[in-house]
Amino acid sequence: MFKNEAINEKEMTLIIANLLSVKAIFAFPRTIVETSGNAAWIEVIYMALFAWALMEISFLTYRISGRKSIIDLSAKVGGKPLKIAVSLLVVFALSLNYATEIRMFSESVKLILLPRTEIEYILILLSVTIAIAQKPGISAIATVNAIFFPVCLAFLGIIVFFLYKSYNFNNLFPVLGNGTKNILTGGIKNLSCFGDIIAINLLLPHLKDIGIPKKSGRKALLIASLTMFFICLCYVLCYAYPLSKEYLLPVYQLSKMIRAGEYFQRFEAFFEFIWEISQLLYSSIYIFLICETVAKAFDLKDRNAISYGVIAILTLIAAEPISITKVLKFSRIADMATIPTVYILPIIIPLLYMKKPTGKAKK
Amino acid sequence: MKFLKIAVIVLILVCFASCKDAQEPETLGYVVAIGIDMPKDEEKGYNITLQFANPDKISGGSNESGGKGGEESIENISVLAPDIYPAINIANHIISKKFVLSHTKLIVFSDEVAKKGVSEFLETINRSVEIRPNIYFAVCKGTAKEFLEAVNPKTEVNPVRYYTMIFENDYSGFIPQNMSRDFFLFFSSDEKGAVVPICAAMKKEKEPEYADSGYQYEVGDYTAGEIETGSSEIQVAGMAVFDGDKKIAEIGDIKTEIFNILTGEYQSSYVSYNFGDETPVTVMQMQKKRPKIRVDTSSKTPKIEITLFLESEITQGSTKGIIENELDAFSEVAAAEITRQAMEFLEETKMLGTDIVGFGSVAKRKFKTIGDFEAYNWKERYKTAQIDVKVEFSVRRTGLVVRS
C-alpha cells in the first residue's frame, strides 16, 4: 500500500456508491427500458438482488484472503505471471469502462453545454482535470467524494420530488412490460451496471480492518440500488414506453420537465452540477484503480509516474469512435466484456488461493 | 516552483474564462413562437414564421416606467425553409441576432400542415436540446403567420408570459390543458389519441350556434376565430383531434370543456344551466376529484365506466323561484346534462376512432405485458366500446345570499 492512502468505512461506502450510481444517473435507465419496457424498475430490483448475491459470495472468501486484493492473491497463487495476467484483465475491464464513460460524458457536455467546442478539446480538458484530481491519491479523493456525493444525492432527490406533478401511474402498466423473459435475460446482460463492485476488492489493502468492505459494500449497494430504482421508476412514471427508450440522457430529460410554480424552471442546471462533480470523482477513482493495478502488476513504486501516461492513452482510446452511436455500441461490448472479470475473478482467485497447499502441507 | 504553479493556474483560468461557446445576451434573438404554414403552390418546404422577443421593449431599456409590451415587444420574420432549424439558419442572415429556441413557448401549425401530418416537426422538437418539453402546440385556423402577426400582448409586457397565461388558463375549460410533451408521449401510442388547442386570428365568419343542451345554456359553441368580441385580435378555443400525427377533426369549446372534465384536467369555470326558466342558473363549477375510470377488457367489446365528481357554487340563481329550495332538483338536472354531453362527446370520439380521453391507459392495467395489450388492439376495440357515464354533482355554496 502506498503511503497516506487509508480510507475509512464512510468514505469507502460513498466511493462504491458513487461508482455504482454514476451509471444510473446517465444512460443506464434507457438501456434498461430498452430491454424491459416500463418494467425497468423490476429489472433494477432483480439486478440488484443478483449483484448482491454475487457480492455476498465474494465476501465469504475474505475470511481466507484477509485484506488482500485479487491482484495480491493472484501473485501468491500463481506468481508473477498470474499476477500480470489478472492485473491486465482487470485493467482491460476498467479501461474499457473508463474510456466509454468519459467519451459519453464529453459527448453529452458538447450536446448540452458546449455545442461549438470540439469533442477532442472537451476530452482533453476533462482529462487534465482528472489528472489533477487523482494526483493526491485515494484518501483525498475519498474525502472530497464524502463531501460532494451526498450533495449530489440530495439534488437527485430534489429532482425526483419536484417531478411529482408529471407522474402518471398508468405508465407502470402492463406491469411486466416487455415480459418476464426480457426482464430475466436483460437483467443478466445489464448486470455490468453493478460491475464497479470490483472496486471493493481492489481497495481492500487501503482499508483499516476487514469488517469495513462488507459493511461498506452492503451499504453502497443499497444506496446505489435505491438511486437506480428511483431514477428508473421516476423515468418510467414520466415517460411512457416506447418514447422512454429513445432519450440519451434520461435524468437530464427529467430535470427539463420540472416546473415548480411559474418561476422555478430550468432545473437542468442542478443536473449539470451533480453530473459534472460525480463524473469527475468517478473518473478520478477509476484512474486511481487502474494505475494502482498496473503499478502492482509490474512492481512499480510510484503510481503517479504512470498516471499521466495512462490518462493520455485512455483519452486517445476514448477519442477513437467517430460518432456517438459507435460509442454506444462500444459501450455495450465493454459491458459484456467486463461482467466475467468483475464478478467471477473476485470469487475464483480467492478459491484458488484456498486450494493452494500451504508451506506446512508441502513439507 | 510555487510561483510557476500559481502562474499556470492563473493562465488556465484566464484562457478558459471566455470559452468558444460564450454568447452575449444582446447578440441573441429569443424566439417565443414559431408558426408553420404550407408554402405556395410552386414553392417547396414550409413557410416558417419566427416570432422573437424585443428585449429592449420588454425591459424598458432606459425607460424608468418599465417595458412597453404590446406589439412592440415582439417582431415576426417569415422564411421559406424545409424545417425549423433551416428557417433559423436563414433568419440568422436576415436579422442581426443569433436566434435561439430556449425561450420558445408556442408552436402553431396551420390547419393544412396539421392535416398533412406534423411528425417531421415533432422529430426536430424532440431532438432539440434548446426546445423545452413544456411548450404549447396549437393548430391555427387560417395561416399561422396571420395568427402570430395578430398577436398583440397588450396586458403583458413579457410575450412568453402572455402565451403562458393564455394556454394555461385554469379558470376556463374551453381549451385542452396539455403541453407538447403529451403530444410526444401519445401521438404514436395505441392507448391515447392526441389533442391540441385551436387558435385563430379574429375573422368573424359564423353566426353563433348555441349548444343544443342545458349545459352552457345560451353560450355559443365556438372554435377559435368565431367568438365575437369586438376587441381581441386572436382567439384560442376548442381543440383539434389527431389520429397519429394528422388532424382529423375539430371540437368546439363546450365539448372541449367536457373533455377536460373527463380527463380530470378541468379545474373550474363558470357554467350556465337551463333550469326551466328564461334565465339560466350559473354556477362556479369545480372538479372535486379526478374521475374514477373502470375498464373491463374481458370480452372483445370493452366496457368503460366513468364516474365524474363535480361541485359547484351558485353565482346566479333563478329570478322566479328560490334556487336554495331546489338544490337537489338542480343537481339532478345538472348531472343529467353533463352525462348527456359526455355521452355525446364520447360517441363522437368512437366515430372518429380515437381514444383521446385515454381510457386505453386504464385498460393497460388489465394486461400483463405490452405484447398482450398490443394483441388486444385497443384502438380498434375502442370503436365498439360500451361506455357508461355517471356524474356526482353537488351544490356546496350559494354565494353570499341564502334565501328560504
In short:
The complex is a heterodimer of chains A (363) and B (404). With 363 residues, chain A is mainly α.
Commentary on this structure:
- The complex is a heterodimer of chains A (363) and B (404).
- Chain A has 363 residues and is mainly α.
- Chain A has a single domain, classed as Amino acid/polyamine transporter I, CATH 1.20.1740.
- Chain A has 15 helices and no strands.
- Chain A has helices at 9-25, 28-36, 40-60, 62-65, 70-112, 119-134, 138-162, 180-189, 198-202, 211-238, 250-257, 268-297, 303-319, 324-355, 359-362.
- In chain A, helix 6 (119-134) packs antiparallel against helix 13, helix 11 (250-257) packs antiparallel against helix 12 and helix 12 crosses helix 13.
- The radius of gyration of chain A is 20 Å and the shape is globular.
- In chain B, helix 9 packs across helix 10.
- In chain B, the strands form two sheets. In chain B, strands 1, 2, 3, 4, 5, 6, 7, 8 and 9 form a nine-stranded mixed sheet that branches.
- Chain B is built from 13 helices and 13 strands.
- Chain B has helices spanning 2-17, 55-59, 84-94, 111-116, 119-127, 144-150, 159-167, 180-186, 253-263, 327-352, 359-363, 370-376, 378-382, and strands spanning 28-37, 46-53, 74-81, 98-100, 106-110, 136-141, 195-201, 234-243, 246-251, 268-273, 281-296, 303-316, 386-397.
- In chain B, a hairpin with a 6-residue loop joins strand 11 and strand 12.
- Chain B starts with a helix and ends in a 7-residue tail after the last strand.
- Chains A and B meet through helix 11 of A and helix 8 and helix 12 of B.
Helix and strand topology:
The complex is a heterodimer of chains A (363) and B (404).
Chain A lengths: L8 H17 L2 H9 L3 H21 L1 H4 L4 H43 L6 H16 L3 H25 L17 H10 L8 H5 L8 H28 L11 H8 L10 H30 L5 H17 L4 H32 L3 H4 L1
Helix pairs in contact in A: 1-7, 1-10, 1-12, 2-3, 3-8, 3-10, 3-14, 5-6, 5-12, 5-13, 5-14, 6-12, 6-13, 7-12, 11-12, 12-13
Chain B lengths: L1 H16 L10 E10 L8 E8 L1 H5 L14 E8 L2 H11 L3 E3 L5 E5 H6 L2 H9 L8 E6 L2 H7 L8 H9 L12 H7 L8 E7 L32 E10 L2 E6 L1 H11 L4 E6 L7 E16 L6 E14 L10 H26 L6 H5 L6 H7 L1 H5 L3 E12 L7
Parallel strand pairs in B: 1-4, 1-5, 5-6, 6-7, 12-13
Antiparallel strand pairs in B: 1-2, 2-3, 7-8, 8-9, 10-11, 11-12
